[in-house]
Write the structure tokens for this entry.
Amino acid sequence: MNRGHLPSMMKAYKRLPDPAGHFGPFGGRYVSEALMPAILELEEAYCRISGDPSFQQQLSRLLQDFAGRPTPLFFAERLTSYVGGAAVYLKREDLAHTGAHKINNTLGQALLASRMGKRKLIAETGAGQHGVATACAAALFGMECRIFMGTEDIGRQSLNVQRMRMMGAQVIEVKSGSRTLKDAMNEAMRYWLEAVADTYYVIGSVAGPHPYPMMVRDFQKVIGEEVKHQMQRAAHRLPNALLACVGGGSNAMGLFYPFLEEDIELIGVEAAGKGIEKGEHAASIGEGRVGVLHGSKSYVLQNADGQIREAYSISAGLDYPGVGPEHAFLKGTGRARYVAVTDEEALSAFGLLCRLEGIIPALESSHALAWAMREARLRSKKDLLVVNLSGRGDKDLGVFSAGPNKSEEGKLK
Amino acid sequence: MNRIESTFRRLRANNEKALVGFVTAGDPDMEKSLSLVSSMCAAGLDMLELGVPFSDPTADGPIIQRSSLRALAAGINVGSVLEMIAALRPQSQVPIIVFSYYNPLLAYGAAVFHRDALDAGADGVLVVDLPPEESDEFTREWPDERLCLIRLTTPATSLERMEQITSSASGFIYHVSKLGVTGSAGLQFDEINLKVKALRSLTRLPVCVGFGISTPQHIASVAEMADGVVVGSAFESLIEQNVGREGLSDLLSARVAAFKRATLALS
């Protein structure tokens, strides 16, 4: 890709954002004045507390004993031989407690909240994985928990709604706008405006105002750090490329960040929905323009007047018209490449992984998997690809209740 | 002297307080909105805040969210809000503030907005989600200071931060009366008074107070402390309940007159 000019500019990547939360022209703190004191307090607390060794020790212990880390790096042998190209490794975040990478971040933020003396958590959720992981952390720390979730997502992710309620969270239905993740985030921000004095807002992605994009990335980078060690152990070298799905982009940033200054390709996979040309998609980086949504500047799906467009994806976790500012920066510098995969391609990859490897992936992760298969086919057998299997797909089985997806069945027999 | 300054000077000379009205521009459509706003100005409004509708108004309660949706359905954008201001100008010289979230202005372009807003006859702009930390990118392309950038303070603003905000503000200070979205209940007059006094120790700019002010009693209490009282959701809710009815214009005018009387009650 851009290997020719990479080494000279790679050194500064891990030092971002700057003190004001900017990743080049992206990021920042675009929030109403009422939230500024809370955001500044959070930044100060995060910098102070995360530098405390006892905080990091306590978090590592929780990640190990409670969340089940490290998660395995698994060589998908049958998938690799089916595709016939580069070797495909899966980072098994689906095996983390609550079934996705989201727990890495919610444990970190809940621990931070408890050290800040806040006893109430709020969060937005799309697919429900972040909601479940927040509800879980709240239960673990004995905190009150409210989860904002769009009506549309409550319908398609009912299993996760039940899990949140079982763990004592109150699920608040959001009926405004497109009734998905974007609107859940709007409503969580409105609630926070009023409750800001005693309530901690656990943002689930590398989005939102500074310090969230930095902080969530820091809590997720454990994914990439583990991959580094595990790949060395398995193959005595680093991989050639890393792939992850990108909605807001937290699992991708968590995988990419430790490798930003290495000569390794980074590929983010957005949701092309029913097809980019049909206009029903969630490819904010690929198709959006620079704008401000939910507190930071990044690529946003919007019309010429600056009104936010509704995103679409079969996968609730990718159904978001914005993307984290660090991804916008990585695209701008050419450090990472962003592509998009349709609903149909993702469903097909989903079915294949179930049958070839006995793993039911989340629809979100299936997007990364679909592109990895395409990528593997074009590459030498010596290449190593790592796909972040960010979550498990139990929550998505309802999508198939309308009728099983037969498209790949013939090929497999 | 701009219209904001001259208005507050005139009001002070008469020992009056400003009644500031917020209305979403283009609700329910451009033509009706223009006639409603025009009659409000004629009925005694001292300053007008025209809201640019936005798809994701994260600081607004349900009433202004719905008014934004009606205006968006009517196709209102930044350009049409400026057209509306230009159309109002022959009839009224009340100061007009464009009230917006940042993204529609960013899409319109900062320098172009400055030029077109002044050409249309706007006096200031208030950008809900553009704190002092980020506003330089918006104002650095402005060739002069004829367009005021109105700053907000809130109950959560510390004295130190108030100092930072007032030092870069112009026109007037908009103090948000309470934490929460627009239109919500629960005013604490003692706290408002303390904040307004703190602001007065830092700036000579007039201080207007808004959010959650919906009755003549609220207005009378706030007018005692501040230079101006902002009413938004109470007007929007009247528009919503009577949209499509013939008497709406008269209802709004009567409400403006009653609210203006409330600002005078104690002076």
Notes: Chain A has a mean pLDDT of 94.
